[in-house]
Design a protein that fits this description.
3% helix, Jelly Rolls, mainly beta, 129 residues
Length: 129
């Protein structure tokens, strides 16, 4: 088997420059995945003491994310340029089926270039069908 057959990639937030919160990323249906990770790729990050950036993960039992709640254990601060990996663990044991990543920016004139990608290990192979 090849990696492309075992791992599915889903773009949750398109790479772009964000100066405000990005709350409408792709909703991920975790059905059919054993585990996975979010890969946050950041380019330019304007950092000063009054600017904050975070990738937040929300979950819901509804496909439209109605009643979503934040998964605080998966929320990660972004402070540098590069790749940041957020382990999602055992997706097949989560109580809520749907996830969505959001970029949260704060402070005076925040600017971040970022994108979020989900990489998941599918229960049935090949993953990319």
């Amino acid at each position: 088997m090849y990696v492309k057959d075992e791992v599915k990639a889903v773009e949750l937030i398109a790479p772009a420059v964000y100066t405000a919160d990005k709350n409408d990323g792709t909703i991920l249906d975790t059905l059919g995945y054993d585990n996975g990770m979010l890969v946050v790729s950041t380019g330019a990050v304007l950092t000063t003491s009054d600017r904050t950036y975070a990738v937040e993960v929300f979950e819901s039992g509804a496909a439209d994310m109605t009643g979503e709640t934040i998964v605080t254990t998966l929320t990660t601060a972004v402070t540098v340029t590069g790749l940041l990996v957020v382990e999602l663990g055992q997706l097949n044991r989560r109580t809520k089926r749907y996830l969505r990543a959001k970029i949260n920016v704060g402070g005076g004139t925040p600017t971040i270039t970022a994108g979020v990608l989900f990489l998941g290990a599918a229960q049935e192979l090949p993953a990319n069908v």
